[in-house]
Structures are given as structure tokens and as C-alpha cells.
Design brief:
With 344 residues, this protein is α+β, with helices and mostly antiparallel strands. Helix content is 23%, strand content 27%. It folds into three domains: 62 residues, Uridine Diphospho-n-acetylenolpyruvylglucosamine Reductase, domain 2; 150 residues, 2-Layer Sandwich (Uridine Diphospho-n-acetylenolpyruvylglucosamine Reductase, domain 3); 108 residues, Uridine Diphospho-n-acetylenolpyruvylglucosamine Reductase, domain 1 (Alpha-Beta Complex). It is built from eight helices and 21 strands. Strands 5, 6, 7, 10, 11 and 12 form a six-stranded antiparallel sheet that branches. Strand 19 and strand 20 form a beta hairpin. The longest helix is centred in the C-terminal third of the chain and has 19 residues. The radius of gyration is 20 Å and the shape is globular. It starts with 14 loop residues before the first strand and ends in a 9-residue tail after the last strand.
């Protein structure tokens, strides 16, 4: 099976070996054996935040398909320990249906639970780091199973200790703590407008989920076989965090937000002002294009190659760099391919 069939971008070559693990103990033991043998391993979750190269992957792909949710409730708090292979949006839906708040604004994000701490997944005013109590991992260096508390995860904007050391730990379960409350605080302007409340106002988790799903669908950010614009890895570039000195030199029309380490700028605004429009392609023959709904997403038409995606991303990077002196960094994990600012 080609890895293209297991990723939302739909590109990627064949692996030497593919193993699907449905039990946590099986996943841990298989990886221990492979690591002891010093074999090359790729841990694959939902395939929604990865760009695979066109060549074969020489090694073993372990596909995470583990299941299990443990629920502990009391005193207005609900604690859930969730296996890494549980689908993320199904978990959000379960929580919303039960009136548990804290992750409703993260509705519609594809992928699996185990991937969310790696990138500190966030959207519409919420981040997974705000609700994580602990993360259970396999330390691939020692072979031992360990538990990281929230502080030990070293969360930052779209980053964590797990992202900064991608081959050190395998996440096998995540424990989150939610509020058992009928309403939640809306912290994001676009979402607040959709709900007709003020930023900082209250809304029911179900209403928040419905509004977020509608907003994401309008941007092609909800997986839908009928929507060609959803054939992507979501936002391809992260919003850059720059120093105050650099931010001052960017036109005031660019949306910006305070961030640890500087000022976070809107990557979509920078891309558009650099001359990249919705639907933009490097050439008429290219099967990779910018989404027709959102300039942060790169869409791969059926039959497209990773090389075409990389070529388009590199052109976008260069245009923004020439216009603003800012190098955009890719958000997806790059495997068997490379892009400036990315991981080879």
C-alpha cells in the first residue's frame, strides 16, 4: 500500500513494511523490537499533518490504531485518559454531547488524539495544552514507559518537547481534564462573531462546535470527500513569531497577536500580500495548488506528487521572504522530502 492512501494530502511512496497496531501493548512491544534492531521506523497516525516524499520509505511504518477511553468524573471536573489511536474529532463530539467543555473549539481537526500534544494543536482560542493533565509515553532511548505532566511537556505555540525531539518518545495515551459545565468562554473574535457574542462571553459547547465546524468547512478545513479543497494537510505554514523590531516594520494591516518570544503575525495575510491568491499554482500543469478557500492550505489533486507540493510551498516561501524578509515554516511533518525551515 502506498502511503499516499493513508494521508490526507494523498501523496507518498510505498513503505517496505506496514504494521497496524490496535492495542497499546502491541504498539509498545513492536516499537521496542524495531528500535532494538536499529531499524528505521515511521509512526503514522491519521496522516493529516504529514507530507510524505514520493520515493519508497525504507523501513517499517507503524500505524497507530489503538482504542480506549477511561472516564473519571466528580466535583464539576471530568478526567479522560484516551488511547493515542482514538480519532480526535470523535472525542470532541463525545465531550460536547456530554456537556464537558474545554476542547469544543478544536472541533473538526482531523487526526488522532496522540498527535495533539506533539504540535500543541490549537484553534479558535483553545489549545490542547490548556486541558492536558499528563501524557503517557514510551521512551525509545530507554525502552521504559513514563508519564509527563503538563509542565514537562514544555508546550509552546504549535510545539512541545515531543515535536522538538521527534524520535525520542512515542505517545501512547493522553489524559485531559475538562469542566462539567453547561457553558464555555469564547475567546476568539471570528468565533464570537459567528455566535453573536462578545469575546469573553459564554456559549454552550454544542453551539461552539457547530459554529467551528461551519467556519472550518468554509475554509476547506474539514475532511469531506465531496470537497476537493479538503485534500490537504490543513494549514501548511505556521503563523510566524517575530521580534518586536521586525513586527514594527510589517504594515499595521497585518493581524498580529502577543506571543511568547515576540509577536505572532498572520501567515495568511503575509502570503496574500506577497501576491499568492486562492487557487494559485506554480504552472498550469501543476497538480498542486493553493486552496480555493484559504491561502494557508495547499491542495493536492488526485495524481499529484510530493515534489509538486514542495515546489509550490517553496515558491510561496520565497515570495513572502522577498516581500517581508520572513521565512515561513511548514506546519506538517516532512518525511523523505525537505523544504527550507522544515524537517528533512
Amino acid at each position: 500500500m502506498r502511503l499516499a492512501d493513508l494521508t490526507t494530502l494523498g501523496v507518498g511512496g510505498e513503505p517496505d513494511v506496514l504494521r497496524t497496531c490496535t492495542a497499546t501493548n502491541e504498539l509498545i512491544e513492536r516499537l521496542r523490537v524495531l528500535d532494538d534492531a536499529r531499524e528505521r521506523v515511521l509512526i503514522l497516525g491519521g496522516g493529516s499533518n504529514i507530507l510524505m516524499g514520493d520515493g519508497p520509505f525504507h523501513g517499517t511504518v507503524l500505524q497507530v490504531a489503538t482504542r480506549g477511553i477511561e472516564i473519571e468524573a466528580g466535583d464539576g471536573v471530568v478526567r479522560l485518559t484516551v488511547a493515542a489511536g482514538e480519532p480526535w474529532d470523535a472525542l470532541v463530539e463525545l465531550c460536547v454531547v456530554n456537556g464537558w467543555s474545554g476542547i469544543e473549539a478544536l472541533s473538526g481537526i482531523p487526526g488522532l488524539v496522540g498527535a495533539t500534544p506533539i504540535q500543541n494543536v490549537g484553534a479558535y482560542g483553545q489549545e490542547i495544552s490548556q486541558v492536558i493533565e499528563s501524557v503517557r509515553v514510551l521512551d525509545r532511548a530507554s525502552g521504559s514507559v513514563e508519564v509527563f505532566d503538563n509542565a514537562e511537556c514544555l508546550f509552546e505555540y504549535r510545539s512541545s518537547i515531543f515535536k522538538r525531539h521527534p524520535n525520542r518518545w512515542l505517545i501512547v495515551a493522553v489524559t485531559i481534564e475538562l469542566r462539567d459545565a453547561g457553558q464555555c468562554t469564547v475567546r476568539y473574535g471570528e468565533l464570537a462573531a459567528a455566535l453573536a457574542v462578545e469575546v469573553g462571553g459564554l456559549a454552550a459547547p454544542g453551539a461552539v462546535r457547530s459554529a467551528v465546524l461551519a467556519l472550518r468547512a468554509a475554509k476547506g478545513m474539514v475532511l469531506d470527500v465531496a470537497d476537493a479543497d479538503s485534500r490537504s494537510a490543513g494549514s501548511f505554514f505556521t503563523n510566524p513569531i517575530v521580534s518586536d523590531a521586525i513586527a514594527v516594520g510589517i504594515p499595521s494591516a497585518c493581524p498580529r497577536y502577543p506571543a511568547v518570544g515576540g509577536v505572532k503575525l498572520s501567515a495568511a495575510w503575509l502570503i496574500e500580500q506577497a501576491g499568492v491568491t486562492k487557487g494559485w499554482r506554480v504552472s498550469e500543469k501543476s497538480r498542486a495548488r493553493v486552496s480555493n478557500k484559504h491561502t494557508l492550505a495547499i491542495v493536492a489533486k488526485s495524481g499529484a506528487t510530493a515534489a509538486e507540493v514542495i515546489d509550490l510551498a517553496a515558491h510561496v516561501q520565497q515570495l513572502v521572504l522577498e516581500k517581508f524578509g520572513i521565512l515561513l515554516e511548514p506546519e506538517p511533518t516532512l518525511v523523505n522530502c525537505a523544504l527550507a525551515g522544515g524537517t528533512p
